[in-house]
What we know:
Residues 17-204 form the Metallo-beta-lactamase domain. The protein is of the alpha/beta class. Helices cover 29% and strands 27% of the residues.
Amino acid sequence: MRIVMLGTGHATVTKCYNTCYAYEEDGRSFLVDAGGGNGILSQLEKAGLELADMEGMFITHAHTDHVLGAVWIIRMVAASMHRGQRSRPFTVYANEKVMRVLGTIADMCLPAPYLKQFGEPLRFVTLQHGDEFDVLSMRWTAFDIESEKEPQMGYRAVLANGTVIGCTGDEPAHAVNDPYLTGVDWLLTEAFCLSEDEETFHPHAKNHSTVKEAAASAQRLGCKRVLLYHTEDATLPTRRQAYTAEARTAYDGEIFVPDDLETIEV
Ligand SMILES: [Zn+2]
């Protein structure tokens, strides 16, 4: 199993794509978030991932930088179903708010023949806190991160080899989610900027955290590895080195600060 990072930036970045990624295993894939638009299609193309091989997607929440790319994925998948090129299901997993947003935009913006694919074989599974499902060779548990800004889900995924991955969505790990995140092999979490750049990027005003705070959460939770994303894009050339150095001051485990299109074995 590998994670293909399709984007690593926050909502309004222009020098990289919004944070989203795909799990890829034996030629099949599963998307987590889709960024803010049609750019998801070029990122998939650059990564060599075909929509025809995609089993579905999980959308954490309905903010523009996570959900609008999903409209494009749905459009493309529904089109291939309409043309008779795909009969295999494609499943969208998300909370009720995301489903409402996707349904409303699709109703108003997509051609009627595409909408006919909705339900079957284009499936929508509305998730409640604690719901479980299987995708690729993983067992997923979705949990409500209890965000104060937007209904949002994180997840805990257990791989066939026992590896456990925890994702906090695009907010810091909240203590209420500790049962899902404590001791995971991989913690995927946002880190908006370096501590020294707080006054420039104002992470806390947006319910985001500094690198040091994200690293401290990973340390508190006893995670073996931390992967930091959803960052500013003003420091991309030095991001990996600078973020890793700051995270090291608060965290003992392995630190990953990937670039767009980087692949990580998990
Ligand atoms: Zn975001």
